[in-house]
Write a structure and sequence with these properties.
It comes from Timspurckia oligopyrenoides. This protein has about 375 residues and is α/β, with parallel strands linked by helices. It has two domains: about 230 residues, 3-Layer(aba) Sandwich (Rossmann fold), CATH 3.40.50; about 110 residues, Rossmann fold (3-Layer(aba) Sandwich), CATH 3.40.50.1220. It has eleven helices and 18 strands. The strands form four sheets. Strands 8-12-7-2-4-6-13 form a seven-stranded parallel sheet, with helices on both faces. Strands 15-14-16-17-18 form a five-stranded parallel sheet. Helix 7 links the parallel strand 14 and strand 15. Helix 3 crosses helix 4. It is globular, with a radius of gyration of 22 Å. The protein starts with a strand and ends with a helix.
C-alpha cells in the first residue's frame, strides 16, 4: 500500500531524501490515466470542463510523459467534442480509451471500477486521476482500495509526481503531502477550480478526424470482461434516472453564480427572488446546505464542503450567513457580493461588496434595474 505523509520544513534529512526521490523519478517513465466524467448523451463524447481541468493537472504531474483519458459510453460514439488540443509544452494525449457496453449505461461505480482495474492491469499506469466531483468521489476510492493504495483527494497544486497540496480544515489550511513510496501507483482527485481547463478542439465526427487534429495519438476500444460486468451488475440496480433540463450554465463552470440561503425562508421565496436574478445575469443557481436540506432547491445546487466547489467571476450570496462549510466551496470566487440584513454575518468578512439590507426588498429592486 502506498502511504502519504505531511512534509516538514524541508531541512536536513527530509530535504536530502526529497531530492533523492526527485532525482530517481526523473528516469522513470510516467503514464497518467484521467478518468473522464460521462456525458449525458450516450453517443456524443463531450468532455466536461472539470475533466479538462483534471487533464491539466495530469500534465503538470507527468510533464512531457504520457497522459491518456478513459470515457464510458453505452453505445458507439458518433462525435467527439472538447478533446484537448496538442499542447506546445506537453504535447498531445497518448490514448483515448473508450469503454462501450449497455451494462455501463447508468455509470454505476461498481461496474466502472472493474473496467478501470482491467485497463490498469494491461497498461500499468503510474497515476490514475479524476476530477473531485460526485462522479470522481464515488469511483476513485473504490479503484484505490482494489489496487491497495491510498488516495490523495482534492489536490489544488502539484509539486512533483509524488507530492501534492490539498486543503484541510474546511479550506482554512493547506497540507503538502508526499508519497512514502514515490514509485507506487498514485490515485488522485483534482479540485477542478484550481487548474485551468485544457484548451479543447472543435467537434469532430470520426476517430480519423480526431487523430488528424493531433489531439490524440491513438483511440482504443477497451476490451471488457462481460461476465465480470454481469457479476458486478448484481451489486446495484438503478430503477430510473430523472434529469432536469435547464438552459442555465453548469454550476461547476459558470462565470456567474447566484446562491440563496436559509434567510429566504421557503421554496417559494427562493424561486421568486433567486431565480429571476439569475435569469437576468445568465447565472447558475446555487444554495447553502441549510437551503437544500429545507427543500428550497435540488441537492445538485449545493455549494460548499459537502457540495460543489465553485470559483466564478462573480458570486452573489443572498440570505446566507457564511458558515465555514459554505465558504470552503466558494471563497476562491473572483468577486463576492453578499446581501444579508445582519451586518455581523461572517459572509461580509470575505465579500468584496456587501449590502446589509432586507433581501426581500433589495434583491427585487436590483433585479428590476438590470437590463
Amino acid at each position: 500500500m502506498n502511504l502519504y505523509r505531511k512534509m516538514g520544513n524541508g531541512k536536513g534529512f527530509g530535504l536530502a531524501l526529497y531530492k533523492r526521490w526527485i532525482t530517481g523519478l526523473q528516469s522513470r517513465s510516467l503514464h497518467a490515466l484521467v478518468i473522464c466524467e460521462p456525458s449525458h448523451s450516450s453517443k456524443e463524447f463531450n468532455l466536461s470542463q472539470a475533466s479538462r481541468s483534471a487533464i491539466t493537472a495530469a500534465r503538470h504531474i507527468v510533464k512531457t510523459d504520457s497522459v491518456s483519458i478513459l470515457t464510458f459510453n453505452a453505445q458507439e460514439i458518433s462525435s467527439f467534442k472538447g478533446i484537448p488540443i496538442k499542447d506546445k509544452t506537453y504535447g498531445n494525449l497518448s490514448n483515448l480509451f473508450i469503454a462501450s457496453n449497455p451494462l455501463l449505461e447508468n455509470y454505476e461505480a461498481e461496474r466502472l471500477t472493474s473496467v478501470c482495474l482491467g485497463l490498469h492491469n494491461k497498461h500499468k499506469f503510474t497515476h490514475i486521476i479524476s476530477a473531485a466531483s460526485t462522479f470522481g468521489k464515488n469511483l476513485l476510492p473504490r479503484v484505490a482500495a482494489c489496487l491497495d493504495t491510498c488516495q490523495v483527494s482534492d489536490i489544488v497544486k502539484v509539486i512533483s509526481s509524488s507530492s501534492f497540496v490539498r486543503p484541510i480544515y474546511a479550506g482554512n489550511a493547506l497540507a503538502t503531502l508526499e508519497a512514502v513510496n514515490p514509485d507506487a501507483l498514485q490515485v488522485i482527485t483534482v479540485r477542478a477550480t484550481s487548474f485551468e481547463p485544457a484548451e479543447s478542439s472543435e467537434q469532430v465526427q470520426s476517430i480519423d478526424d480526431l487523430i488528424k487534429t493531433e489531439a490524440v495519438e491513438k483511440v482504443e476500444q477497451v476490451e471488457l470482461d462481460v461476465s465480470l460486468l454481469e457479476e458486478t451488475a448484481k451489486m446495484s440496480c438503478v430503477e430510473g434516472i430523472e434529469r432536469a433540463e435547464s438552459g442555465r450554465p453548469d454550476l461547476g463552470s459558470a462565470k456567474v453564480v447566484v446562491s440563496g440561503g436559509r434567510g429566504l425562508k421557503n421554496k417559494e421565496n427562493f424561486d421568486q427572488i433567486i431565480v429571476p436574478l439569475a435569469d437576468k445575469l445568465n447565472a447558475a443557481v446555487g444554495a447553502t446546505r441549510a437551503a437544500v436540506d429545507s427543500g428550497y432547491c435540488a441537492n445538485d445546487m449545493q455549494v460548499g464542503q459537502t457540495g460543489k466547489v465553485v470559483a466564478p467571476q462573480l458570486y452573489i450570496g443572498v440570505g446566507l450567513s457564511g458558515a465555514i462549510q459554505h465558504l470552503s466551496g466558494m471563497k476562491d470566487s473572483k468577486v463576492i457580493v453578499a446581501i444579508n440584513k445582519d451586518p455581523e454575518a461572517p459572509i461580509f468578512q470575505v465579500a468584496d461588496y456587501g449590502l446589509a439590507a432586507d433581501l426581500f426588498e433589495a434583491v427585487p429592486e436590483l433585479t428590476s434595474k438590470l437590463p
